[in-house]
Amino acid sequence: MKQINIVKPFLPSIDEVYADFAKCLGTGMVTNGSANVRLFEEKLQEFLHCRNKPLTFCNGEMALFSLIQAVKTKLGYDAHQSFDVLVPSFTFSGTINAIVMNNLRPVFCDVDASLTLDTTRAGDLSGVRLMVVVGAYGNLPDLDAIAAFAQAHNLHVIFDSAPAFASKFRSEYVCNHGFSEIYSFHASKIFNTMEGGLAVTNDDEIQNYLTLIRDFGQYEKVRGNVSIPGLNSKMPEIAAIVGLKNLEKIDYILQKRHENIAKYKAFFNDPRWSQHFSTMLVRNNVQCNYLYFPIVLNEEATAFVAHMQAHNITVRRYYTAVHGLDYYKDKYRSFDLSYTESIKDRIVAIPIHTIMDDGEAEHIFETVAKYFTA
Ligand SMILES: Cc1ncc(COP(=O)(O)O)c(C=O)c1O
After folding, report:
1. Which ligand 1 atom is nearest residue 186's CA?
2. Which of 68, 92, 194 to mutate to test the pocket of ligand 1 (most atoms within 8 A of CB)?
3. How close is the Cα of 134 to the center of ligand 1, in Å?
4. Is 237 touching ligand 1 by the criterion CB < 6 Å?
5. Confidence at 356, pLDDT banded by 50, 70, 90
6. Which CATH class is domain 250-373?
7. What's the longest Cα–Cα distance across the chain?
8. Does the beta carbon of 138 sit less than 6 angstroms from any atom of ligand 1?
9. Cα gap 72→315, rounded to integer Å
């Protein structure tokens, strides 16, 4: 069996993008709100049924950085001022970097068996103004509980839905529940523009700040006068062209994923494995698009990871506990992280692609079974 990589990007052929890209090169309109970027945002608005036009970015981390900056500005803080942000430690470093690079302080909180933020584990929230919820592996927490918690503690909420494009809670996307959120369109994601990101908000003030921030903060072009210090993070035209082609096939992408997810669940949720590993809890009202298929072993994962790699299957020890990474160690406040600590060396992300060649899923299942029944 040839190598099964951790991701297999779903991309259009050169023939599909040739005419649009040739036209874009011919006109010289390659960025700065160019035709396909505008069209892509319109099509994404139709897809997401969101009130405001979603705003494309060069990547998910810059979309998140900009959304945090926009919320911070709305709350009345200037760039050099600070407050605390409740966030799971169990995420990608990019989530926490976007907080810290906004001169804000993460306060690390635990996750539950859904691998998403467990607000019942939060302690003293004095100094906290914002919470960043993460859609790890495309999974979502109970959004009603998040809203109630935020209201009770007077916190603003945003979602880092980088891995969770098209995931739903009670049949609706996160933005349709009134939350501002970002998505990543990186090549590793189920829907991609090679590199790219998106910010979606129903809040007109935040929308206005985001529009400025992604274009240096400029509100006029003659002098380039700025009303806010923004970091350029516009999506280039070629990414939007790829995104438009992929969006035409989104129903097909989701249908294929759901077929593969059903296969994976049938194998990994078999009760015979419960003495060896557990799978991520997905609540009944959540539709999770599974960016990777995480399993939590009952043992430390090094030997299992080596076994999978030896059988040509690339797996990742992903996500991790960011509070333990070199830069973040002992730097910021943490609540009780016992669940995160207990899974961080046992979790393994197994590849699940949109399009899997004949026998690839079966090879993964056989290799897992071989390890646990040897
Ligand atoms: C939770 C989370 N946040 C942020 C990002 C950053 O997205 P991007 O790679 O598009 O910058 C990722 C990327 O994987 C992610 O998983």
Report:
1. 10
2. 92
3. 10
4. no
5. very high
6. alpha beta
7. 70
8. no
9. 37
Specify the long-range contacts of residues 322-325, CB closer than 8 Å, at least 24 apart: 322/89, 322/90, 322/91, 322/92, 322/93, 322/95, 322/96, 322/108, 323/89, 323/108, 324/89, 325/93
Determine which helix (DSSP H) or strand (DSSP E) holds 182, and give its type and residue range: strand 180-184
Report which ligand 1 atom has the smallest distance to the Cα of 184: 10
pLDDT band at 160, cuts 50/70/90?
very high
Residue pLDDT, tens place only, 304-348: 999 999 999 999 999 999 999 999 999 999 999 999 999 999 999
Measured distance CA(347)–CA(365) in Å, rounded: 17
Looking at domain 14-248, its CATH class is alpha beta
- Residues 6 or more apart whose CB falls under 8 angstroms from that of 16 comprise 245
> Domain map of the chain by residue range?
14-248, 250-373
Q: Which amino acid, one-letter code, is at 183?
A: Y
pLDDT at 374: 80
Atom of ligand 1 nearest to the CA of 62: 11
